[in-house]
Design goal:
This protein is α+β, with helices and mostly antiparallel strands and 534 residues long. It has 2 domains: 70-321, Distorted Sandwich (Beta-galactosidase, Chain A, domain 5); 329-533, no CATH class. It has 15 helices and 23 strands. The strands form 4 sheets. Strands 1, 8, 10, 11, 12, 14, 15, 17, 18 and 21 form a 10-stranded antiparallel β-sheet that branches. Helix 7 (326-343) crosses helix 8 (346-360), helix 7 (326-343) packs across helix 12 (416-434) and helix 9 (362-377) crosses helix 15 (510-533).
């Protein structure tokens, strides 16, 4: 029995040796002809020092292409599924966010089946998808768990034409940022030049009729942060070539962004087939024969949250923007977060923030209301002047100015203090409209003493329109307490303002309506106090 085992062992060793020698003879790569010193110097001179570095001579393992396999990466924040054939993303579930407030609602998934076909997180060489035409090796591991406080690398290796590609993705437990290092090696016998592309694709992240939360393409370039949501313009294509830092597909709450290392970047975006698509190109990559270049890249897939985006590379933190009033919106949102930390209810926090803002502007509001009350007292005299000089506009204006001077009334006195408050109002409006903190945040979850869902999501409209109707009524009452404008046409326009605003607010996120409603109620109380004391 022992002799048989010995014979089998010797035969196995002999066969293995023959196979190894045969493989080496027939399939091993032929040695490249050595370059003369002058040729080497010319090659180094013509290739950018930062872009192409001669590869260290080392024995590379045999490359064996296989069909794509799922690689699951799970962190405390998300679960990602990538396909080893190119490292494209096929699933990305956010563990802390659900699609609705319904019990058992699925988690938000930033990858759709339609987007998978476009190679989400795929890389391109000169416009060709490496996940389609390349050959890729089996993954080293098919399931990776990133524990709290840790980080893990996942590597994909492939061959695409004359390029050997090694993609290393780094996942951190406490971050939605995915860092990438791509090693490109020229395995051909001639120099290679081209551009390396990074792709993103997504179905609309919001309902097409949602005017306050539109899916859009955004970017950072030499002119700053900008975006485009018009689907016709995106259908024709949008490109940015100067000073590009990142490109993204986003809603108010979630974003898919790509930010390659700085230098020679171009962004191209398009909307077609109900898909938003972005391609970021790193231009002018030159590889001499047998050399290697490393290109860095970053992806961010997750919530638009200042906490997670702070300190991210390539200016990715500028994704958190609230438009023209950004400088006011951000500190107001920080104060709102502070108040929520104290009371534990976002609706109550909004009410407290509105009260604080009203207190800060109390002196200005008082000045405005006092000026309006003075105007109210001289309304009969103003009416007489208009009637007396209705056919002489110049004389009417002269008499009006004399009237204001006699009674020491500034016709703009009621408007200027209010105008100073408008930027703050709009800043808070923008903050509440885009704050992911309010998404699925509850104020009064049910109608009192019932199981009927009411203000259970401050980012959604009031299902029963109670708050916008109260807001409209408060606006009407506030207008009745304010002296009517002297111009009859202007007075008629103002009469319709509460109706117009009520219709506008019917579909507003309820958090915004609560803010505006409370502000109106406080303004009525302040105006009533001043009127009573007058």
């Amino acid at each position: 029995m022992d002799n048989d085992n010995t014979k089998r062992t010797l035969i196995a060793i002999g066969l293995s040796t023959l196979i190894l020698l045969g493989w080496t003879y027939f399939f091993s790569p032929q040695p490249q002809p050595a370059q003369a010193p002058a040729e080497q110097a010319a090659t180094m001179q013509n290739s950018p020092a930062t872009a192409s570095v001669p590869a260290e001579p080392k024995e590379a393992p045999a490359f064996v292409p296989v069909d794509g396999q799922d690689v699951v990466v799970e962190t405390p924040l998300f679960k990602a599924v990538l396909n080893s054939a190119g490292g494209i993303l096929t699933d990305f579930e956010l563990k802390n966010y659900t699609t609705s407030i319904e019990p058992g609602a699925p988690q938000v998934n930033l990858v759709s089946s339609a987007a998978m076909d476009k190679g989400l997180l795929g890389i391109l060489w000169n416009g060709q998808g490496s996940w389609r035409s390349g050959q890729w090796a089996a993954p080293e591991q098919t399931r990776v768990t990133v524990s709290e406080g840790d980080e893990t690398n996942v590597t994909f290796s492939g061959v695409f034409g004359g390029l050997a590609i090694v993609r290393t993705l780094t996942f951190k437990a406490d971050s939605y940022l995915i860092k990438e290092d791509i090693a490109l090696t020229n395995t051909s016998t001639t120099p290679i030049s081209g551009r390396l592309g990074f792709t993103l694709a997504s179905k609309p992240l919001t309902h097409p009729d949602d005017r306050y939360n539109m899916t859009r393409v955004s970017w950072l370039d030499a002119e700053g942060t900008d975006n485009e949501n018009d689907r016709e313009d995106l259908g024709a294509g949008v490109s940015r070539l100067d000073g590009v830092g990142w490109g993204a597909i986003q809603s108010n709450y979630f974003v898919l962004a790509v930010a390659p290392e700085a230098g020679n970047l171009a962004m191209h975006a398009k909307y077609a087939g109900d898909l938003f698509r972005i391609q970021m190109d790193k231009e002018n990559i030159d590889l001499a024969q047998g050399t290697q270049v490393n290109v860095g890249n970053n992806y961010y897939l997750g919530p638009i949250s200042e906490n997670f985006l702070a300190g991210t590379p390539n200016g990715l933190e500028s994704i958190v923007t609230y438009g023209f009033f950004d400088v006011l919106a951000k500190p107001l949102l920080q104060l709102l977060n502070f108040l929520y930390g104290m009371v534990g209810n976002w609706g109550v926090a909004i009410i407290l923030l509105t009260v604080i803002i009203k207190i800060v502007f109390w002196p200005l509001s008082n000045k405005s209301y006092k000026s309006m009350n003075k105007m109210k007292k001289i309304q009969p005299l103003m009416a007489k002047v208009r009637e007396q000089y209705k056919d002489d506009r110049q004389k009417m204006n002269e008499e009006m100015m004399r009237l204001y001077k006699t009674y020491k009334v500034n016709p703009a006195g009621g408007c200027l203090p209010m105008m100073m408050q408008i930027p703050v109002f709009f800043g808070l409006y923008q903050a509440l409209l885009g704050a992911i903190e309010l998404r699925h945040a509850s104020f009064i979850a049910h109608v009192p003493f019932t199981d009927i869902v009411w203000l259970a999501d401050l980012s959604a409209k009031d299902p029963f329109y109670v708050t916008p109707l109260i807001m409209g009524a408060s606006m009407f009452l506030q207008q009745k307490m304010t002296p009517s404008p002297g111009d009859p046409t202007q007075a008629k326009v103002m009469l319709f303002m509460p109706v117009i605003f009520t219709f506008l607010f019917l579909n507003f996120p309820s958090g915004l309506v609560v803010y505006w409603m409370v502000n109106n109620v406080l303004s009525i109380a302040q105006q009533w106090m001043l009127t009573r004391d007058a």
